[in-house]
Write the structure tokens for this entry.
Amino acid sequence: MTDPIVAYLEQHLDDYLADLRTLVAIDSGSNDKGGVDAVTGWLAERLEALGFTVEWRRQERFGDDLVARRSGAGRSRVMLLGHADTVYPGGTAAARPMTAAGDKILGPGTCDMKAGLVTGLYALRALHHVGWAGNDATTFLVVSDEEIGERHSVPLLKAEGPAHDAILTLEAARDSGDIVTARKAVRWYTVEARGRAAHAGVEPDKGRSATLAIARFVDAAYALNGMREGMTVNPGRVSGGGSPSIVADRATARFDLRARTDAQLDELEAAFNDLASRPLVPGVAFSATLEKGSGCPAMERTEGVARLEALAIGVARDLGYDLDGAATGGGSDISFAAHAGTPGLDGLGPIGGLDHGPDEYILRGSIVPRTALLAKLLVTIEAERQRGAGNG
Ligand SMILES: [Zn+2]
């Protein structure tokens, strides 16, 4: 006999795809408030039909953030997490409507992450269909600003995450099928070098070259790569100087620093700042400034994360496939939501790839298995919680 959740999802796969097509047809770039609000509004209506109470965190300029809550008969508190914005400018949806090519479903925002939102909805529908009593609290949080630098939703993510036992993030699974169990901490820095200008022909000795100093700084900072396993330093835009006839008095470089844990990023940052205190060119001073609103904390692979990962692997095995967890260098919503140590998993949407480009896709064949995984993970987390409570 087919599992009733899987059977429900198979019977409703066409509905799922029609819903995904509807969402992909809405332009919802981060700056398109109307479009983002249309996506979250669409979802909110359907969550209300499943018994959720909807709270809006209104935004003036960006889309509103959606917090949908439902309480049930269980003991566990679980958050489903996603974002409604995409990286695409207005007009992309009309130019590239959702299409299928073999097992691939292509379209702007399919993988990142409208399919994830639809998977969250259908997992809840499947559970409703089989009459499951629910967790104690189920929260579906959808933010509007995942794809931009300075984010208004960080305080919301940081406040909501710790109110839950588990955070299940609906970004797509990686193209290998892996879910995500760790994300690096990230910080961005601007380093400015200040020297002294002079005529390069008449009295070059009076000059103190900021461009030379920033070049040496870039080289020295780059050498911090791999200081510890997983630590990276990447120089981005480097600028400075003007006419070649002038010894440059100003130059800047921007850097991306990453590490596996927040503590290791502190360590890397200290080494980076130490470099900035050294006179790499006599008479040229550096100042290193953390870029406002940049970066994110690490999502560390804690014991709690490993336990959730094991549950997911077990559920997948019951569904007939192998699942692995993987670490990635990129940050995401869960990096903030899990900052206080709430365990979570990411990549619980369908399998997909090539985000942010014209070939972005999800695999049709992964929709039912991954949506069933999410639904059964909610059930399993609740069962674990009850078992734990029974023992304690
Ligand atoms: Zn995303």
The chain has two domains: 4-183+298-391, 185-290. Residues 367-391 form the longest helix (25 residues).
